[in-house]
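Hello Y.,

Per our agreement to keep a running log of every chain we model this quarter, I'm adding this entry. I've kept the format consistent with earlier entries: sequence first, then predicted structure.
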Amino acid sequence: MKKWFVVPIVFLILGFFFKIFDVPGKNISMVIGFVWLGILFIVRLIKTHNKTSLLSIIFLISLILTTFALYTRYLFFSIGDYPSLIIIPLFLLIALVYFLSEKNKPAIFTLSTISYALLIIVIFIPRAEGICLGLFPNKKQENDLPNVNKIEGLSQFNSDEAYKNFNFGVKHSNLEEYSLSKTYLEKANSIEPNNMDILRELSTTYFNLKDVDKAIETITKAIELYPDNEFLYNNRGYFYYHGNKYTKAESDYSQAIRINPKNPIFYRNIVLSYYYSGNNEDVCHYIDKLKELDYNITNDKEIDWIEYSVCD
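Predicted structure for the entry above:
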């Protein structure tokens, strides 16, 4: 059984150093290590729960939970943000009690605990974002979503009633009264179902109401009607980004850039998406593109931080 624990720990160590030196396969190695270890811990818990002390059982459960927490930290999954705040400190406390109290400690527990302790230390280190998320919730930076009032060339409205409801919808959206905004925009949409700006604003309202599927469905309809509008692709990319669907987000941001390569908003958005998906090479490429557009990186704290932690 011991050798089966050593192998995944080797994968973890390799993955960790691959992350430090940005070697291809860094995430795959860590996924294999964490998943393998998690399965082994669960199997051991099932097999030994009637044959070992209560403290050993509690410690083993804490190892399983910490495997999950570290997996989310090192693979950049925000689902572990708040659970990790509880799991990791508890693990450290339980491990301390366990190693001070238990006399016959399996070597695999010692090796696993040392490995996890080293990985935990890293999540407390400032500027380690290129390797893992910190212990405290790492709030994903906001993409830029152009405001409807800032975009020139609004669609022509064929109905005064649709235009009136659209304006009411935008007004309530700006006041963060999204349910009222939805009511007015849906009414406008029923009058002019193919109006680009109604569809775009309605999709944003659905998103703000946490109905992401409806938001994507609505903005996709707008894209089908107006396939050459860069802002529609940008907005759909925004929705995908916040759903952690980075590949789809990057595809939409890239399309927005192809249509309009002069708008820094699209480059900033794709930088954030690549950063949170762990694609550091493309992060630096698009930061360079931002600079070519004379975008002031130093005035943008988020992008400046990403450049410092990834590209310098």
